[in-house]
Write a structure and sequence with these properties.
The complex is a heterodimer of chains A (315) and B (384).
Chain A: H1 2-11, H2 17-58, H3 76-83, H4 85-118, H5 123-135, H6 138-148, H7 155-162, H8 177-202, H9 206-215, H10 220-231, H11 233-248, H12 252-258, H13 269-279, H14 283-314
Helix pairs in contact in A: 1-2, 2-14, 4-8, 4-11, 5-8, 6-12, 8-11, 11-14, 13-14
Chain B: E1 4-13, E2 16-26, E3 31-35, H1 42-50, E4 57-62, E5 65-66, E6 77-80, H2 92-104, H3 121-138, H4 154-166, E7 172-176, H5 184-201, E8 204-209, H6 212-218, E9 221-226, E10 229-234, H7 236-241, H8 246-251, E11 258-264, E12 269-272, E13 275-281, E14 286-292, E15 297-313, E16 318-324, E17 331-335, E18 347-352, E19 358-361, E20 366-367, E21 369-371
Classes of the chains: A mainly alpha (315), B alpha+beta (384).
């Protein structure tokens, strides 16, 4: 603003003194504005942008946790990452996890929300039941799952034996470990998505359903297609992105149940990051992994803001 | 084109009776208004006709066929909602096309991408498109067809809602307070448009409103509903002139009819404030209420004296509020020439002709009155 004011005065030197005075006053205003913005901007710099910048800087160093010195090594960390088999495995596993958990938890969350909303009684009872996994500490729940999935004494294999099916060593088998974690991920995310969808469904005006009914949408499916699904568009976009980001961040279940094993079959990005940074103390390399992770989250956020912009236009 | 008959319609929500046995026959091509204060059950009645709600007991017949249990869409009625209920994600064109697509396309053909591959869809779509454009031209909304409802003004949305209703050529139109969300000026304009639409389509219109002015100006007959009952059905002029119940008299007409405390003497004569009127009745002696419309109050002459407490000058007419002893509410008189108004606080005499009186008994029912010529004075003013 002060720049604009100065150029305005500077561009037209022939103008009289009052123009300059306005310019001065504008500079004054912009100084006040900057002063008022300063506290918030400082906080944002310290809490958000600062750490981000230091992670980015750290990723170009060979810093090790606790080491007295470090040196700049440019893109060496990233080069190492590209050649690292574990990185590619954990990236592929993370993407698989996201590709299963996001559609699974979104579809189930929507389905359960629709069922609860169409029911006449016990609504808050069902809402509470499905929301329990969200409220519970995931680490504690992971231990419960460990018991449930235990090859010999587990409830899951016990139930399968009951109907005559041979159980698996769910978490110890490299073919099933990741998918078991996906199932736990879906179980954990469904309740949260359901609550968001319920809020969205409740806010759809009743008269739209009346209009759809009058217009000939006689089946529940056609009313869903004509009213519910489009009206839930913004909520769905939000739920998908939030589920996506949360799935990218999967760590606690992996750490408690499999530690990325067996033979890296359930290794995910954040777990690799943790191992590199806090077990091998290779903070520089860990920071490079973090940067890759942040790029994915940033992509998802961009998709969300693009969708949100479109949603606002529709409404 | 349809005749709609309602017999003994009752509706209860748990222990509350919303409709208490409504009987109404709506003729083919008629414009009838259901009017009443909010909460009287008129919208519920309309929803029962549409099939959106089921009645607790009673029968709805459309063209002689019982439609209870038949889905709203199968009744082939169109409805215009107070909030317009346009689909916000669809363009104006698609909004108007919805009922046609639901009717003419199969569920498979309506599928988002796959539908285009089903044979016959293109041809049907062209027919729908032609119909939508015809209706849009009629309602003068052709330039808006590609906009979303969010980009339209209230009046334009209203027209789109009407377009969506007429495009399917329904047997009857149901309007649920369609003008309530518009500003006063536009409301008056849309009133005329809807009345013209009725004259052009010659289809049955059932119009629900709480605004008695809308009902009076647009419809052929009005049905006044109060507390779940149809109190009176008749032409607007008849309901205005001959209300059969004091609630009807008080609801219809703006400003409200003046209600004065009166009495029936043992000889059958009527009196108000102890002064007898040139009227007698066969009703039982006791308290009654004497009602007079504001435009029938005459100022400057008459047996009553009061003072002006408030003036409302509308420009073309004015209302003078006169405080009378023994009455809480002021007497309201309409003056057609507002250039000569009494000043606030000045005392003024007033009276009314005997034939302006509508008398109601203590229960609110109308009492028939006959004039008493022997008592009448030359100017027919209610006398001492």
């Amino acid at each position: 603003m002060s720049d604009a004011a100065l150029t305005l005065v500077g561009d037209r030197p022939g103008r009289t003194a009052w123009m300059a005075r306005i310019g001065m006053r504008r500079t004054g205003v912009s100084r006040t504005a900057l002063l008022l913005v300063a506290p918030a901007a400082t906080l944002m710099l310290i809490v958000l942008l600062g750490p981000l910048a230091s992670v980015l800087a750290l990723s170009f160093t060979d810093y090790q946790l606790g080491a007295p010195s470090f040196s700049w090594i440019g893109f060496a960390n990233y080069q190492e990452m590209m050649a690292d088999k574990v990185f590619w495995i954990s990236l592929r596993n993370t993407l698989t996890y996201v590709a299963i958990v996001v559609p699974g938890s979104v579809a189930l969350g929507l389905g359960i929300a629709l069922l609860i909303q169409s029911g006449t009684s016990l609504r808050s009872w069902y809402r509470t039941i499905y929301f329990l996994p969200v409220m519970a500490t995931l680490i504690a729940m992971a231990i419960v799952w460990e018991f449930m999935l235990h090859p010999q004494f587990g409830l899951v294999n016990g139930a399968l034996r009951g109907i005559g099916i041979q159980g698996y060593s769910w978490l110890q088998d490299r073919h099933t470990a990741l998918y078991s974690l996906c199932a736990i991920g879906v179980w954990q995310a469904v309740g949260f998505n359901m609550v968001l969808f319920l809020a969205g469904i409740v806010s759809i005006p009743r008269q739209l359903y009346d209009a759809a009914e009058i217009d000939g949408a006689a089946s529940a499916w056609s009313r869903f297609r004509l009213v519910t699904w489009p009206m839930l568009g913004p909520v769905t976009a939000f739920v998908v992105v939030i589920s996506g980001i949360r799935s990218f961040q999967v760590f606690d279940t992996v750490h408690v149940l499999t530690k990325g094993g067996p033979s890296k079959s359930s290794e995910v990005l954040i777990h690799t990051m943790y191992i590199e940074s806090f077990e091998f103390f290779r903070s520089g390399y860990g920071a490079a992994l973090t940067v890759v992770f942040l790029i994915f989250v940033l992509l998802l956020t961009l998709i969300k803001s693009f969708l949100a912009g479109r949603g606002a236009h529709d409404a | 084109m349809a005749k709609i008959e309602l017999s003994a319609i009752r509706k209860s929500f748990e222990s509350t009776d919303v409709l208490k046995g409504v009987e109404l026959s709506i003729a083919d091509g008629e414009f009838i208004s259901l009017v009443g204060p909010s909460g009287c059950g008129k919208s519920t009645l309309l929803r029962i006709i549409a099939g959106l709600d089921a009645q607790t007991s009673g029968e709805v017949r459309i063209d002689g066929t019982r439609v209870d249990g038949i889905r709203p869409s199968a009744r082939n009625l169109a409805m215009v909602f107070q909030s317009y209920a346009l689909y916000p994600h669809l363009s104006v064109f698609d909004n108007i096309a919805v009922p046609l697509r639901m009717k003419r396309l199969s569920a498979l053909q309506r599928l988002p991408l796959l539908g285009r591959l089903i044979p016959g869809r293109g041809h049907t779509e062209r027919g729908i498109s032609a119909d939508v454009e015809k209706v849009a031209a009629q309602l003068e909304i052709s330039p808006l067809l590609h906009r979303k409802p969010g980009q339209l003004s209230g009046g334009q949305r209203q027209r789109v809602a009407v377009g969506r209703a007429i495009v399917r050529q329904p047997v009857a139109f149901l309007f649920d307070e369609p003008l309530s969300n518009l500003d006063a000026k536009l409301r008056v304009h849309m009133r005329a448009e809807i009345a013209q639409l009725h004259r052009r389509l010659k289809t049955t219109f059932v119009y629900v409103t709480h605004d008695q002015a809308e009902a009076m100006t647009m419809s052929g007959r009005i049905a006044v509903m109060i507390a779940g009952e149809l109190v009176q059905v008749g032409t607007p002029a008849d309901v205005y002139e001959n209300p059969r119940d004091i609630r009807v008299a008080e609801f219809v007409g703006s400003p409200k009819i003046n209600v004065l405390p009166g009495a029936i003497r043992t000889d059958g004569g009527l009196e108000v404030f102890g002064r007898s009127l040139a009227l007698s009745t066969a009703g039982a002696a006791g308290a009654c209420r004497i009602c007079v419309r504001p435009e029938r109050i005459e100022l400057g002459t008459g047996p009553f004296a009061g003072h002006v407490v408030h003036l409302e000058n509308m420009g073309s007419e004015a209302f003078v509020h006169i405080g009378l002893d023994g009455m809480d509410a002021p007497l309201v008189a309409r003056i057609s020439d507002p250039r000569h108004l009494p000043s606030i606080g000045s005392s003024v005499a007033c009276g009314f002709a005997a034939d302006a009186v509508r008398a109601f008994d203590a229960g609110g029912r109308r009492i028939e009155t006959v004039g008493q010529p022997r008592l009448e004075r030359a100017r027919e003013i209610a006398l001492v």
